[in-house]
Amino acid sequence: MVRSIGGFVAPGSVVERGVAKPHRSIRAALATPEEVRMLILRIPRQRELPDALGDLPALEDLTLEVGPSFQLGAALRTLSRLPALRTLALNGGEVATLPDEIGLMTRIVRLDLWGTGTERVSAALYGLSQLRELMMHQVRLTELPPALGQLRALTALAVMNSPLARLPEELGELSELIWLYLDGSALAALPSSVARLTRLEAVHLTDCPLRQLPPMPPVRTLRLRAGQLDVAHLTAVLDPRTQLCWEPLPSG
Q1: Is the whole model's pTM more than 0.85, yes or no?
Q2: Does 222 reside within a domain?
Q3: Distance (Å, whole) CA 205 – CA 203
Q4: Rounded CA gap, 167 and 144, in Å?
Q5: What is the model's pLDDT at position 251?
Q6: Residue 23 to residues 7, 14, 26, 207: CA-CA distances in angstroms?
Q7: Is residue 116 part of a domain?
Q8: 171 in a structural domain
Q9: How far apart are CA 86 and CA 76, in angstroms?
Q10: Is residue 243 part of a domain?
Q11: Does residue 118 surpass a pLDDT of 70?
């Protein structure tokens, strides 16, 4: 299910004046382009965006559910011309490399990649100075580069159910970071610079092969799988104010 502002909106819907309305076709959805603020578009067989999508001056939140032939670079060039677009979510497809054109999206504040199979990310991503939320689920990234530290406005970082095995020390430069979600990654440890993230409120690390944690800032919630780390070790590295939440072991 796709996240939307203020709740969930069914695929194939648009939001006009704050109200979700189903539409049978993109043509019907775009009959009043000045009123469309959110659009969830399923185009699994198309290589390109519908031409009319470039004429939505009020569009703020766009989710694209695409197939393996979708040409993301061309789509980003079109989307970069939408003056109000702030949230972009890409579901599916075969986006092995997030292309350089992502750097054209200078106004977005949230980027979601879900099940895209992404293995590499263009360095242009790390020049998006307004990006506040970077959410990736079921991608194929094994590490994030030192350039991650350039995303100084980032408040939420998620790389979940992915083979991520390394985070750079530059993680500690994300001074605005509040939420760090790394469930289901391949991380055995966090960089020691995490201690500098004094605004962190929640860290999720369930189902990671963790061997140890560095000294942690006083986060509000740390979520782990039961038995994932030794309690004595956690007592040594956690601030007493941190609430430790244990996820139960999977049944069976």
Answers
A1: yes
A2: no
A3: 7
A4: 6
A5: 63
A6: 19, 7, 7, 40
A7: yes
A8: yes
A9: 13
A10: no
A11: yes
One-letter amino acid of 43? I
> In the chain, how many domains are there?
1
The string of pLDDT tens digits covering residues 93-116 is 889 999 999 999 999 999 999 999
- pLDDT (tens digit per residue) in 211-234: 999 999 999 999 998 778 888 998
**Residues contacting 162, CB < 8 A, separation 6+:** 136, 137, 138, 139, 140, 141, 184, 185, 186
Tokens standing for residue 58? 């009020």
Q: Dihedral sign, CA of 61, 197, 183, 246? A: negative
Q: In terms of residue numbers, what domain contains 38? A: 8-211
The single-letter DSSP state of residue 143 is B
195 and 219 Cβ atoms separated by less than 8 Å:
no
- Which residue has 């590490």 as its token pair? 143
What's the pLDDT tens digit per position in 63-102?
Answer: 999 999 999 999 999 999 999 999 999 999 889 999 999 9
- The SS3 assignment for 40 reads strand
What 8-state DSSP symbol labels residue 237? H
The CATH number linked to 192 is 3.80.10.10
